[in-house]
């Protein structure tokens, strides 16, 4: 059992973020080993790291989920979250930002600043979190001075080194507390002065002292340093090699002495109420107050059950605590309280503000739940993260009949674990569709279904939800007569169809006079009409936006039955639609694309080639542009791959249904032809 924290002031919380292959997991291993949390650093290649404990992670040699760790450096407890770096896995990386006071963006010295690093810096700034840049793999012979200049050019002059590589990157030297030493580039004294000047700028008293005395003892700068970090006025840069260990001890000192404890960072963005009337709520990181905690991650193990992982923001949680989940009227009792070390659950006696803990087998826990022990806190929630919208869809079905419900249940559990997965059942195409952020995202989900849950599935691109409609009025008639040697079947229906405006749906009108179709059979006629509308007439897609008027018919006093009028109504409708200049309609979606400005020409040209149109553009963050337009959904089914190619993986997009329009004639011929072949078979 870990040594209990001495209090909130002795806690640091840190998320390791950034692009894949930046060395985040190897760095986490080095930090664990340096503090004695593990005997020796594990290896990604051997599958022996604490973070990447999942069977898929070991096989793919990449982090796929956020892993929660803890370590002690002297009297300080450090909670560390190692996050995946692939853009497709943002649903795993972003929730870590809800649990920490500092976001550490790890940059690979060999590859430089990659899009994921830029995105995570932006997300951290939006959440008002302290930011730290860790330049890893400094032992690879890269031009570190040029990389530092690039960091300052990209993220601002507030990116200043708190240590510098020395001895050809075999070690690093501190330049925050010290003015002396030799570095591979720049000078320790110059770096120290730049840091002090940047920090004292936030405090007029220190500015005056600095101007009068020429320097300020860095040990006196704790309060203005934390203010500078909170305001984004300083973004420390650290140099490290997780492989050789260079800079690892110094990084631990930076975390311990420079980064904020839970009482020093910007407070979490809690709100009471919804919408514009929501009011900010301040969570005070004091152990004696009532409990406020936030569930930022949920995992569902097929053997262990559900595990809810939460950050405590206020109060103290112990085994035996009774906590409410949001608006729930009934509390659950904390049985065992854990801290996580990768896959290991380490039981603890209590958790205080700043601690990241977990409870198991509480089925009502879900991502973004607020845990509390006071009735007045039931309407409190954390300001939502701006998760990217999943638009990459895949239709999925079990390979073995009878597994449909189990597949739905398992997919539901996986969606619970990842806010960037979406599951829906399409009532029009009768398909189960799972949406993710890209091909990797969905491939990982399929691998998990197969390897963890032992479910074999079949997949294909989702069917486009085409519709059929008419463009002219027409009439239809059908007489259903069947004699089988006893009571027969008879029903005759005359009807006409009229086009309605796009989106107006279906209107059924009874204009029969004189009882030629008795009133008790009119529901059967409508049932037959609706059957034909649902089945489609020319291409097998639902028919919409038309009015059906039944105006005449015949019946037989003995042989007329409901089934006869169902059949007559269905076939009369089909005959009318075929004469009403039918068209196939396709869904047209609003698309919003965010990408680097340099790609705008490629994006607008590509959208036009997909039968789309650009409706406007707007500037977003530095160097980014938003392109808004419309295009047929069928043209965007594989758009993410094309967008990645045009933007070097930096582009993202969202879709929303706008309206339905007729497909081009060639497309209609193709769809009708396929339906005829299928119908004949």
From TrEMBL:
PROSITE patterns membership: G_TR_2
Superkingdom of origin: Bacteria
Domain Tr-type G: 9-269
Keyword field: Elongation factor, GTP-binding, Nucleotide-binding, Protein biosynthesis
GO molecular function terms listed in the Swiss-Prot or TrEMBL record: GTP binding; GTPase activity; guanosine tetraphosphate binding; translation elongation factor activity
Classification via Pfam families: EF-G_D2, EFG_C, EFG_III, EFG_IV, GTP_EFTU
GO biological process: ribosome disassembly
Cited function: Catalyzes the GTP-dependent ribosomal translocation step during translation elongation. During this step, the ribosome changes from the pre-translocational (PRE) to the post-translocational (POST) state as the newly formed A-site-bound peptidyl-tRNA and P-site-bound deacylated tRNA move to the P and E sites, respectively. Catalyzes the coordinated movement of the two tRNA molecules, the mRNA and conformational changes in the ribosome.
Protein name (record): Elongation factor G
């Amino acid at each position: 059992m870990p040594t209990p924290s001495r209090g909130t002031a002795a806690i640091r919380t840190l998320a390791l973020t950034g692009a894949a292959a930046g060395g985040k997991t190897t760095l986490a291993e080095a930090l664990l080993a340096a503090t004695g949390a593990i005997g020796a650093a594990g290896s990604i290649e051997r599958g022996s790291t604490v973070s990447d404990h999942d069977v898929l992670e070991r096989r793919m040699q990449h982090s796929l989920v956020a892993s929660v760790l803890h370590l002690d450096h002297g009297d300080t407890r450090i909670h560390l979250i190692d996050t995946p770096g692939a853009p497709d896995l943002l649903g795993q990386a972003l929730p870590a930002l809800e649990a920490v006071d500092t976001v550490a963006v790890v940059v690979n010295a060999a590859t430089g600043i990659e899009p994921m690093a830029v995105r995570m810096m932006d997300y951290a700034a939006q959440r008002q979190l302290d930011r730290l840049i860790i330049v890893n793999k400094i032992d690879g012979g890269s031009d570190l001075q040029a990389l530092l200049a690039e960091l300052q050019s990209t993220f601002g002059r507030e990116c200043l080194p708190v240590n510098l590589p020395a001895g050809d990157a075999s070690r690093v030297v501190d330049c925050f507390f010290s003015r002396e030493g030799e570095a591979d580039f720049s000078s320790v004294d110059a770096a120290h002065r730049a840091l002090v000047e940047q920090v004292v700028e936030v405090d007029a008293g220190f500015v005056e002292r600095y101007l009068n005395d020429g320097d300020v003892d860095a040990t006196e700068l704790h309060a203005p340093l934390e203010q500078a970090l909170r305001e984004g006025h300083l973004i420390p840069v650290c140099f490290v090699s997780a492989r050789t260990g260079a800079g690892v001890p110094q990084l631990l000192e930076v975390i311990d002495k420079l980064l904020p404890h839970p009482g020093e960072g910007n407070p979490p963005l809690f709100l009471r109420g919804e919408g514009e009337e929501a009011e900010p709520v301040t969570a005070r990181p004091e152990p004696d107050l009532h409990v406020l905690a936030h569930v930022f991650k949920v995992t569902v193990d097929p053997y262990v059950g559900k595990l809810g992982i939460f950050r405590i923001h206020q109060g103290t949680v112990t085994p035996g605590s009774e906590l409410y989940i949001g608006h729930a009227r009934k509390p659950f009792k904390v049985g065992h309280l854990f801290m996580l070390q990768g896959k290991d659950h380490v039981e603890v006696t209590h958790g205080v503000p700043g601690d990241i803990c977990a409870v198991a087998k509480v089925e009502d826990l879900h991502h973004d739940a607020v845990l509390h022990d006071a009735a007045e806190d039931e309407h409190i929630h954390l300001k939502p993260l701006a998760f990217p919208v999943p638009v990459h869809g895949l239709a999925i079905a079990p390979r073995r009949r009878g597994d449909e419900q189990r597949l739905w249940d398992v997919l539901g559990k996986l969606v619970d674990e990842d806010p960037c997965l979406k599951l829906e059942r399409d009532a029009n195409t009768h398909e189960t569709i799972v949406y993710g952020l890209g091909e990797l995202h969905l491939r990982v989900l399929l691998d998990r279904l197969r390897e963890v849950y032992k479910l074999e599935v079949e997949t294909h691109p989702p069917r486009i939800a085409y519709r059929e409609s008419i463009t002219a009025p027409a009439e239809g008639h059908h007489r259903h007569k069947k004699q089988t040697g006893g009571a027969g079947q008879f029903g005759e229906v005359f009807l006409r169809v009229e086009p309605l405006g796009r989106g107006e749906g279906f209107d059924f009108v009874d204009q029969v006079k004189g009882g030629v179709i008795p009133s008790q059979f009119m529901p059967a006629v409508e049932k037959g009409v609706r059957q034909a509308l649902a089945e489609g007439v020319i291409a097998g897609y639902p028919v919409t936006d038309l009015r059906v008027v039944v105006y005449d018919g015949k019946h037989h006093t003995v042989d007329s039955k409901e089934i006869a009028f169902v059949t007559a109504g269905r076939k009369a409708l089909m005959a009318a639609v075929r004469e009403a200049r039918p068209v196939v309609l396709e869904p047209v979606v609003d698309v919003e694309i965010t990408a680097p400005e340099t790609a705008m020409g490629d994006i607008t040209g590509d959208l036009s080639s997909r039968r789309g149109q650009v409706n406007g553009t707007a500037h977003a963050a530095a160097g980014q542009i938003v392109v808004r337009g419309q295009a047929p959904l069928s043209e965007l089914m594989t758009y993410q791959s094309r967008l990645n190619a045009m933007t070097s993986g930096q582009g993202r997009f969202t879709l929303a249904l706008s309206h339905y329009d007729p497909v081009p004639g060639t497309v209609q011929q193709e769809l009708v032809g396929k339906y005829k072949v299928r119908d004949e078979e």
